[in-house]
Design brief:
The protein is of the alpha/beta class and 550 residues long. The protein is built from 18 helices and 22 strands. The protein binds glutamine (GLN).
C-alpha cells in the first residue's frame, strides 16, 4: 500500500547507529536498510558516516585497507558505505555525508591558526566534539531531510571513536526525544557448546552506557536464529524494551535485509521511539519486484572482472553491485569471476577467458598487473567478447589498440612510462602543477556528450549524460584522428574541455570504455543503462556460443 508523502517538521529526527563486539557487522547495510524503509514510507532520509581514522578522506588508502573508494557526485572521495546508502535509497550523498577524524582535526587546527580560539586552550572536548556536532547538524540545516541517520564507524571501546561517541552523548541530551541510538552487536554461536552467547552483547552495551549512551534499539547480528526468550533476556540486561531487540541473521543477499528488518517491524519501532505515528505500510513494491526477479532467476550469466585486487571483494564493490543489479533485471544469476591481472598473459588468456560471456577491465592505479589487462583486452577484441573498460580499463583499451592495431608498439600512459614516445594516455594539463596526492584528482560528476549513432548513446537512450570521475590521466587528443581512422571511435567527450570520456569499437558486439565510473550511480531501483546494455550483450553472446556448441 502506498503511504502518504509526509514531510515531518522543521526539526528533523536523528538516528545514531553504533557498533559493538566486532567490526564488519554491516552497520552500513543496516543503516541503508532502515533508510530504504523510511524512504519507502515517504520520508526524506539521508545517511552520514563518521570514520575514526586520521586520513582526511579514504582517497589515499590502498583498497586492501578499506576496500573501494567511493566518489560522490560533488567530488568527495568517501567510504564505500556511501555506495550502499545510494544503492539502497536512490538518494545522492554529498561531501557532507562522510567525515573523518582527520578532517575534524584539520578544521579545528585551521581555526586555531586563524586565531578563532584566541586565548583558549584547544581541546578534544569541547572543540573537536563541537566540530563533530556542527557537522552532524549540517545536513539538518539544509531543511531537506526528515531523518538523518548517522553511522559511527569503528567499534564501541575503540580509543579512536571516543570523541564521536561523546558528541553523540551530548547531542542526545540536546535533541531530547528527537534522537535515538541503535546499537548493532554480534551474538556468536559456539559450536563446541552448540550455544548462542549473549555476554559479548551485554558487555558492549555496558561499555556504551559507561560512555553515557543508552541504546534504544539493539540489532543482533547472528548466523543462527536467536530464540525470543534469549532476546528478552538481552533486553532485560541492557535496559532496552523487549520489542526493541531485533536480529539480523545472515541472508543470501544484502538486498533482502530491508525486508527482513521490516518483517520484525524495525521501521515502526524506530518511528514510535521518535514520537512519529507509523501510518500504513512502506511502499516496497519496486524493491520486492527486484527481489522476485533475483529469486526467480535460474539461468546464469558469467562475467569476468580483470583486476589486481581480486583477493578482496570490497575493492570493486560498486562494480560488483552494478553487475548484480543488471544481471537481476535481465533475469539472470550473476556468476562473477575475478581474474587476477598479474596472472594473465597472452599464453593463458584462452584458458582463463574462454568461458566468459563478458569481461570487465577494472579501474586502478600503477603498473602492477597492467600487462594482464592488455592481454585480456587483446584476446577480447580479437574474439569479439562483450568488453567494458572502466577508467584505467578504458585507458588500457586505448593503449592496447595503439600497440596492436596502430602499430605504436611502445604506446603507453605516462602514468606507467613517463618517457613513452607514444603517450596516448597523458597527464591532464591541470594536473601538471599538482604535487599533493590527497583529493587532487579530477573528481565528481562532469558532463559528457555522446555521438547520437554510438552504442553508448543507444544504451543510455540519450546523448547528454553526467557521470562521476576519479582520475589524473586522459586520452591524448593529439592521437585522436589516428584512432578514429583505424576504427576506435571517441564517441563521448566533455563539452567544455573536449576530454575524451567514451571510446568504442563500432564493429564489435559490445566494446566500450568509459573514462568515468558509471558504477557509482547504479542503484537497485535505477540500474545503470550501460551495465544493462553490457549485460544484455553478454547474455546474447553466451547464447550464441551455446548454440554454436550444440
Ligand atoms: N590511474 C588512472 C588515472 O589516474 C585511472 C584511475 C582509475 O582507474 N580510477 O587516470
Amino acid at each position: 500500500m502506498a503511504c502518504k508523502k509526509s514531510h515531518l517538521r522543521v526539526q528533523p529526527k536523528y538516528i545514531f547507529v553504533t557498533g559493538g563486539v566486532v567490526s564488519s557487522l554491516g552497520k552500513g547495510i543496516i543503516s541503508a536498510s532502515l533508510a530504504c524503509l523510511l524512504k519507502a514510507r515517504g520520508y526524506r532520509v539521508t545517511i552520514q558516516k563518521y570514520d575514526p581514522y586520521i586520513n582526511i578522506d579514504p582517497g589515499t588508502l590502498n583498497p586492501y585497507e578499506h576496500g573501494e573508494c567511493y566518489v560522490t557526485a560533488d567530488g568527495r572521495e568517501t567510504d564505500l558505505d556511501l555506495g550502499h546508502y545510494e544503492r539502497f535509497t536512490n538518494v545522492r550523498t554529498t561531501r557532507a555525508n562522510n567525515v573523518t577524524t582527520g578532517r575534524k582535526y584539520q578544521n579545528v587546527i585551521d581555526k586555531e591558526r586563524r586565531g578563532d580560539y584566541l586565548g583558549k586552550t584547544v581541546q578534544i572536548v569541547p572543540h573537536i566534539t563541537d566540530e563533530i556536532k556542527r557537522n552532524i547538524k549540517l545536513l539538518a540545516n539544509t531543511g531537506n531531510y526528515d531523518f538523518i541517520i548517522t553511522e559511527i564507524g569503528g567499534t564501541v571501546g575503540d580509543i579512536e571513536s571516543l570523541p564521536f561517541l561523546e558528541a553523540v552523548r551530548q547531542l542526545r541530551w540536546e535533541l531530547e526525544e528527537n534522537s535515538i541510538c541503535i546499537h548493532l552487536t554480534y551474538v556468536p554461536f559456539l559450536h563446541a557448546a552448540k550455544e548462542l552467547k549473549t555476554k559479548p552483547t551485554q558487555h558492549s552495551v555496558k561499555k556504551l552506557q559507561e560512555l553515557g549512551i543508552q541504546p534504544d534499539i539493539l540489532i543482533l547480528r547472528t548466523e543462527h536464529d536467536i530464540p525470543s526468550s534469549m532476546r528478552r533476556k538481552i533486553a532485560q540486561f541492557c535496559n532496552v524494551a523487549p520489542d526493541a531487540v531485533f536480529q539480523s541473521i545472515d541472508l543470501p543477499s544484502i538486498y533482502e535485509v530491508p525486508v527482513a528488518m521490516h518483517s520484525q517491524h524495525l521501521d515502526e519501532v524506530v518511528l514510535r521511539k521518535l514520537d512519529v505515528t507509523p501510518e500504513g505500510e512502506p511502499h516496497m513494491a519496486p524493491w520486492l519486484a527486484f527481489l522476485d526477479k533475483m529469486h526467480a532467476a535460474s539461468e546464469t550469466v558469467t562475467i569476468g572482472l580483470v583486476g589486481k585486487y581480486v583477493e578482496l571483494q570490497d575493492a570493486y564493490k560498486s562494480i560488483n553491485e552494478a553487475l548484480f543489479q543488471a544481471a537481476t533485471y535481465c533475469d539472470r544469476k550473476l556468476d562473477l569471476r575475478y581474474i587476477h591481472s598479474e596472472k594473465l598473459n597472452d599464453a593463458n588468456a584462452d584458458e582463463k577467458l574462454g568461458d566468459l560471456d563478458g569481461v570487465i577491465i577494472a579501474p586502478g592505479f600503477g603498473n602492477r598487473g597492467i600487462d594482464g589487462k592488455f592481454a585480456a583486452l587483446k584476446w577480447c577484441r580479437e574474439h569479439d567478447v562483450p568488453t567494458f573498460g572502466i577508467c584505467l580499463g578504458m585507458q588500457c583499451m586505448v593503449i592496447e589498440f595503439a600497440r596492436n592495431v596502430l602499430g605504436l608498439h611502445e604506446a603507453n600512459s605516462t602514468e606507467m612510462d613517463p618517457s613513452t614516445p607514444a603517450n596516448v594516455i597523458d597527464l591532464m594539463e591541470e594536473q601538471k602543477s599538482i604535487s599533493n596526492l590527497g583529493g587532487t584528482m579530477r573528481l565528481g560528476a562532469y558532463d559528457c556528450v555522446l555521438r547520437p549513432d554510438s552504442l553508448a548513446a543507444k544504451s543510455y537512450g540519450r546523448e547528454h549524460v553526467s557521470e562521476r570521475h576519479r582520475h589524473r590521466f586522459e586520452f591524448n587528443n593529439d592521437f585522436r584522428r589516428q584512432f578514429e581512422e583505424a576504427g576506435m571511435a571517441c564517441v563521448g567527450e566533455n563539452p567544455d574541455t573536449k576530454l575524451v570520456e567514451v571510446v568504442e569499437l563500432p564493429g564489435k558486439r559490445w566494446f566500450i570504455g568509459t573514462q568515468y565510473h558509471p558504477e557509482y550511480s547504479a542503484t537497485v531501483l535505477s540500474p545503470h543503462p550501460l551495465f544493462l546494455s553490457f549485460m544484455k550483450a553478454a547474455i546474447d553472446y553466451g547464447q550464441a556460443k551455446n548454440n554454436e556448441n550444440k
